[in-house]
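PROTEIN DESIGN WORKSHEET
SECTION A - STRUCTURE
LENGTH: 292
TOKENS:
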């Protein structure tokens, strides 16, 4: 069965109920959210009543909590250890974030591995491993999914070797896995038209069972551009057909696919989310232009 949803909001007023209802408005059967602002570590207490209410709605609509994804804020950079206090702050923050994910009843959090700031790539990878080993422990039943990155600036985790290096260094093997991102793959130099060849490579080096989520995005930039700018499905350089083959790939059956495409704006005051249309197109396996 196709598990397909998008990034949705999460606010203090409606909590998880708002996120679930937003996902349902797109006819999605899963979703991904940040537990607070994506670009900061500010977090508020989570409303437990809203969790209970949200789970009732999820049950009524066959949304399985195993398919719901939380995304860690992107400012967390475990690769940079030039300021030990800051590094430890991020480690602590991530620990708390994993506890929040646990409390919400979910079990997957996507993490951008990090950027090699003030260090070599090798040192950066080592710092990420150390940081993750400080975050994970026996009690928290949440898996960290390392996202494959585009290679913008000094980003780490931009090829299978770097992802494997991190995976190999993490102690709790059952709590570390991978999230693919099609825009990032394209921008890092992987041709999505040859996605099966990539999966072969992935299987040889890492093992397909470690792919636990896929971010489905078109790209504004050509293959290997190292840019990371997401485009709406069917409007970018990857194209609808190639992305359709990704989400219907037999080897990824049952894995949650999450859209992180930009909202569409006709003009600056009139913005709308594209997800309902993108999901409909994917379900129909037919591209219908929804941006006029
Ligand atoms: Fe991401
Ligand atoms: Fe992504
Ligand atoms: Zn991205």
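SECTION B - SEQUENCE
RESIDUE ASSIGNMENT:
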């Amino acid at each position: 069965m196709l598990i397909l949803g998008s990034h949705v909001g999460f606010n203090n007023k409606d909590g998880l109920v708002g996120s679930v209802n937003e996902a349902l408005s797109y006819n999605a059967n899963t979703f991904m959210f940040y537990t607070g602002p994506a670009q900061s570590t500010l977090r508020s207490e989570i409303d437990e009543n809203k969790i209970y209410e949200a789970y009732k709605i999820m049950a009524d609509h066959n949304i399985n909590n195993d398919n719901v994804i939380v995304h860690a804020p992107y400012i967390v950079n475990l690769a940079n250890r030039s300021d030990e206090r800051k590094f430890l702050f991020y480690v602590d923050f991530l620990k708390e974030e994993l506890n929040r994910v646990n409390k919400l009843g979910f079990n997957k959090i996507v993490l951008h591995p990090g950027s090699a700031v003030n260090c070599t790539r090798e040192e950066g990878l080592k710092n990420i491993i150390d940081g993750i080993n400080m975050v994970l422990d026996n009690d928290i039943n949440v898996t960290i999914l390392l996202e494959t990155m585009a290679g913008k600036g000094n980003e780490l985790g931009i090829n299978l070797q770097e992802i494997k290096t991190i995976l190999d260094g993490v102690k709790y093997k059952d709590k570390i896995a991978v999230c693919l991102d099609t825009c990032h793959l394209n921008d890092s130099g992987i041709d999505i038209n040859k996605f099966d060849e990539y999966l072969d490579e992935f299987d040889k080096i890492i093992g397909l069972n470690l792919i636990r989520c896929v971010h489905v995005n078109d790209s504004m930039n050509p293959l290997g551009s190292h840019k990371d700018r997401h485009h709406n499905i069917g409007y970018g350089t990857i194209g609808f057909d190639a992305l359709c083959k990704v989400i219907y790939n037999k080897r990824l059956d049952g894995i949650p696919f999450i859209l992180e495409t930009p909202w569409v704006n006709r003009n600056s005051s009139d913005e709308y989310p594209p997800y309902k249309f993108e999901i409909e197109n994917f379900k129909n396996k037919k591209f219908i232009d929804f941006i006029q």
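SECTION C - NOTES
The pocket of zinc ion (ligand 3) is lined by residues 181, 183-184, 228, 230 (CB under 6 Å).
The mean pLDDT is 96.
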